[in-house]
Amino acid sequence: MAKILCVLYDDPVTGYPKSYARDDVPKVERYPGGQTAPTPKRIDFKPGELLGSVSGELGLRKFLEEGGHRLVVTSDKEGADSVFERELPDADIVISQPFWPAYLTPERIAKAKNLKLAITAGIGSDHVDLQAAIKHGVTVAEVTYSNSISVSEHVVMMILGLVRNYIPSYQWVVKGGWNIADCVARSYDLEAMNVGTVAAGRIGLAVLRRLKPFDVKLHYTDRHRLPEAQEHELGLTWHPTVESMIKVCDVVTINALLHPETEHLFNDALIAKMKRGAYLVNTARGRICDRDAIVRALESGQLAGYAGDVWFPQPAPADHPWRSMPHHGMTPHISGSSLSAQARYAAGTREILECWFDKRPIREEYLIVDGGKLAGAGAHSYSVAKP
Amino acid sequence: MAKILCVLYDDPVTGYPKSYARDDVPKVERYPGGQTAPTPKRIDFKPGELLGSVSGELGLRKFLEEGGHRLVVTSDKEGADSVFERELPDADIVISQPFWPAYLTPERIAKAKNLKLAITAGIGSDHVDLQAAIKHGVTVAEVTYSNSISVSEHVVMMILGLVRNYIPSYQWVVKGGWNIADCVARSYDLEAMNVGTVAAGRIGLAVLRRLKPFDVKLHYTDRHRLPEAQEHELGLTWHPTVESMIKVCDVVTINALLHPETEHLFNDALIAKMKRGAYLVNTARGRICDRDAIVRALESGQLAGYAGDVWFPQPAPADHPWRSMPHHGMTPHISGSSLSAQARYAAGTREILECWFDKRPIREEYLIVDGGKLAGAGAHSYSVAKP
To answer: pLDDT-based confidence at B387, cuts 50/70/90?
Structure first.
């Protein structure tokens, strides 16, 4: 009998919304490369619902209570008095989402004596101190690939939106104008531009694939070089360093993990090496960019636009300068939380819990930390300091 | 010595903007299929400038004045007292753009005794009464393909923007919120959806090509069936009627010409046959949709979103209901007027004028009406009532 502590984003307690814009979400059976979408034995929710919210409870309540477990769901996660902090000491399992993360610091992990499993409903476990998880024998798992394609769509949308000057032009419509000059004076075609991705993992590669028919010149930099056939198929130019890539790019998209080498990678010095008027899109992690350097570059015109949906901290405070800087196309951290993605990561969370309670192995590809070491996906993507 | 009357969109007389977001636009040499981009002997402008505006003069003044011609440029085109109306009677050549059209009605053509050539700087000559042009021996030409790809990019951007709920989520950022539930309750992935285009000409086909790697199911309806190899390559399902296509589609994009069969095609009856919660994107012509039927469908939830950049009339009045209807992602008519596109259609306009003054033939693919009949591109795309 376990206690599951689930930190989810808020919505009105009565449930939200009353009705959905659409009756269903298309079913995705497999991801590129062949990995199957989550395969829980059963689900108790309807794909397309707002599952990741407090009222949605990731569709887990019935399943957990029938199994005799206790589910605590809250959005209150900040400060010593928060529900999360109070419920953590006897929790066996913690679940949260990267854009509303329950930060599992070394102190909290030390305090959570019963904690055995931390699940990211989604992808990205940098809110968990992996070193501490390893030390305390906590298994860390995430729903690998569940929303990678969602994010890649967001990236393409934002690139087009910035380059074509979408949102300011929309705003002229709403204001009642027909100011063609004001709309198009910053509107370009993406065609024939040089577009590069920092890292070509699942998301970066999916972005490259989607951009291919736009007749752009595609670039990437990544420690792991892609297979030659893939480079050839997509017409990719590989760069050994970020510097060599960003110099030639009109558009740069960041699809890298946050680690010491990528933290504040895009600072004044690097941005100064970009082409004047380049666009930068970051849906990876906010801290990969130096917050104030981005603002300065937009104000000076060194960057023509910045978009993304990752911030630091999250939630972003109301006075975060990225909310008001010029020429931005930001969203809150939502790119991986479309209703389509929520259906997949809710199912994946259920699959992980079913395996856990049945004492069946969790899929290798979902594991970040297991048995006191980096495992599965974690061994590929994360690193921890040597002890 | 000819008088050229050029109707362009307005901007501050001093020129706008003072500096551009970018230093250049990538050069496109050829369009898909092999047609070359415009090949004037020379240009007197820098690609990337705001050429289609009154201050930009399509980069033509030097060229025309050196040739001894007279260039009159104005944005004032409405009403009997407008500069356009006053300057028309002795104009030899009229130039305008589809989103700021100099309507050449039968009455005006009858009045313009010297008129020999009407050029669309861009694509789409439905602002010219072709029957009257034929009758009065006016040649009608447009810069075919100059901005087709631009529009196709706009379509993909708008589809992603509607499906993923981009603009409302952006607005939460600006308002200072972190309302994940409010953002994602209407956010879906495009992946695996059914997407169909009404017509698969240059723009429709370019849209289909760009959507292919999004792993959607692609549909089209068109009188002209595409070659089997193309259908196979893109995985297209052809539909004999609009009705049979829209029934199965989550997203419908309109890329058809305006003619009697497409005028008000999307009315209450047709929209009622769409899937509830479908998205409609129209960058073709405003009158292909019934204005108030669109508003009703968005208000009832039959459509989950509507975007596009074509209106009727143009400019749209400040109280046009499409400016304020729910769940829209409209822009003014700008999709074909990125600075990249303006460079091409300004060069194409120059090419047409060079041919005209040199008495060399205008490219077949630019001609809509010539020698008293539909010609070139016009013969393929337009129809006029039999006399």
So the answer is: very low
Among B20, B212, B331, whose Cβ lies nearest the Cβ of A183? B331
The Cα A199–Cα A307 span in angstroms is: 17
Query: Would you give the distance in Å from CA B283 to the centre of its chain?
Result: 6
The single residue of B108, B202, B285, B350 carrying the catalytic annotation is: B285
User: Quick one: closest CA in A to B193, which residue?
Assistant: A26
Tell me the C-alpha distance between A195 and A201, whole Å.
16
Residue pLDDT, tens place only, B21-60: 999 999 999 999 999 999 999 999 999 999 999 999 999 9
Using a cut of 0.90, tell me whether the model's pTM lies above it: yes
Given a contact cutoff of 8 angstroms between Cβ atoms, the answer to whether B42 and B81 are in contact is no
Tell me how far the alpha carbon of residue A277 is from its chain's centroid. Answer: 26
* Cα–Cα dist B68/B40, whole Å: 18
Closest C-alpha among B130, B122, B54, B167 to residue B283: B122
Query: What whole-number distance in Å separates Cα of residue B218 and Cα of residue B207?
Result: 10
Q: From the candidates B147, B166, B275, B325, which should be mutated to test the interface with A, based on the most A CB atoms within 10 A? A: B166
Interatomic CA distance for residues A88 and A83, integer angstroms: 8
Structure tokens belonging to residue A337 = 């939380």
Q: Which residue has the tokens 């901007």?
A: B11
- Report d(CA B306, CA B159) in Å as an integer: 9
Return d(Cα A232, Cα B106) in angstroms, integer. Answer: 55
Supply A283's token pair. 């849906």
Query: Which of B184, B250, B342 shows the shortest C-beta gap to A338?
Result: B184
Q: Are B98 and B127 in contact (CB under 8 A)?
A: yes
